[in-house]
Design a protein that fits this description.
Layout: H1 15-20, E1 31-37, E2 44-46, E3 54-56, H2 58-71, E4 75-80, H3 98-109, E5 114-119, E6 133-134, E7 137-138, H4 141-157, E8 161-164, H5 171-181, E9 190-195, H6 202-208, H7 228-240, E10 244-248, H8 254-263, E11 268-272, H9 274-285, H10 291-305, E12 309-312, H11 315-326
Parallel strand pairs: 1-3, 1-4, 1-12, 4-5, 5-8, 9-10, 10-11, 11-12
Antiparallel strand pairs: 2-3, 6-7
Helix pairs in contact: 2-3, 3-4, 4-5
This protein binds ligand PBG.
Ligand PBG binds at residues 118, 120, 122, 165, 201, 204-205, 210, 273-274.
Length: 327
């Protein structure tokens, strides 16, 4: 039946009507806030390419997490800036390092906070790659043991969820069996199953000090042109024991989020990455866009595409705006 009988505008006339028929609800409960932990005390260093995001010492991280909880954000994901780097990324699985300290401090201060850790070697290796190097190659199988040790050290520190982001084949199985052997069979794995070799990670690599010293990550992260491969990666990670999967980045990959959602039955997270954040911030600072409306539109779009969870540097802002809207 067509116009004039059918007038879709009837249901858009007032906010009450619009909100009654709204199909997608963005909730603070679905947001995960990334934090960068660094050594020292009372350190809160800004990151030039990511306005509003900081490298923080453990005491500041604890304060920040308290603020998140106050806003209703239930989960944070931690990245470490270690005191030393070597070829084997030893500081990634050093129980005394700053990431492990931050996890322990957070769980002591806020037992109810969900503490997720990023499991990777790139922030901890002198060459900046996510695995061991042999010649020009990033070795797969020898890296698995180091990733497992890293995940185990995070679990020992008190992490609630570990999130491997390295893209080595077989790492979910390796981490699962190591955690199980050491009494951590209850700790879920949130796998970065679908992680593309993306230019949108640029600002993060400043924030985390993880720029590869040679070459790029295309031999292990996915080709942006592929979607069927995303399903293969997800299927494989779930078979190996992934409890939840991440699609990353988010905005240029909405179709991938949708496809992964339709083809799996685990919770799907999308990572709204650093470059996506910085572009919005830059435009907002220039007065070219309305930041609040643009951010809420992007996050709603990611959710509508199929993400159950969204990892985003906008989590705190979004939480505040969502709260305002409710009032
Ligand atoms: C790797 C890792 C990266 C991000 C999260 N985990 C960077 C990379 O693969 O180069 C990127 C996150 C972002 O851009 O916000 N440890």
């Amino acid at each position: 039946m067509y116009f004039p009988v059918n007038r879709p505008r009837r249901l858009r006339r007032t906010e009450a009507l619009r909100s009654m028929v709204r199909e997608t609800q963005l909730s603070v409960r679905n947001l995960i806030y990334p934090l960068f932990v660094t050594h020292g005390e009372r350190v809160k260093d800004s990151i030039a390419s990511m306005p509003g995001v900081y490298q923080m010492s453990v005491d500041e991280i604890v304060r920040e997490a308290g603020e998140c909880l106050g806003l209703g954000i239930a989960a944070v994901i931690l990245f470490g800036l270690p005191a030393y780097k070597d070829e084997k990324g030893s500081s990634a699985y050093d129980q005394e390092e700053v990431l492990q300290q931050a996890v322990a401090a957070l769980k002591r201060a806020y037992p109810e906070l969900i503490v997720i850790t990023d499991v990777c070697l790139c922030e901890y290796t002198s060459h900046g790659h996510c695995g061991l190097i042999s010649g020009d190659d990033v070795e797969n199988d020898t890296t698995l043991n180091l990733l497992s040790r890293t995940a185990l050290s995070h679990a020992r520190a008190g992490a609630d969820i570990v999130a491997p982001s390295d893209m080595m084949d077989g790492r979910v199985e390796a981490i699962r069996s190591t955690l199980d052997e050491h009494g951590f069979s209850h700790i879920p794995i949130l796998s970065y199953a679908v992680k593309y070799a993306s230019a949108f990670y640029g600002p993060f690599r400043d924030a985390a000090g993880s720029v590869p010293q040679f070459g790029d990550r295309r031999s292990y992260q996915m080709d942006p042109a592929n979607i069927r491969e995303a399903l293969k990666e997800t299927e494989q990670d779930i078979a190996e024991g992934a409890d939840m999967v991440i699609v990353k980045p988010a905005m240029a990959y909405m179709d991938v989020i949708r496809a992964v959602k339709e083809n799996t039955n685990v919770p799907v997270a999308a990572y709204n990455v650093s470059g996506e954040y910085s572009m919005v911030k830059a435009a907002a600072q220039n007065g070219w866009i309305d930041e609040k409306r643009v951010v809420l539109e992007i996050l709603t779009g990611i959710k509508r595409a199929g993400a159950d969870l969204i990892i985003t540097y906008f989590a705190k802002d979004a939480a505040m705006w969502l709260k305002e809207e409710k009032q």
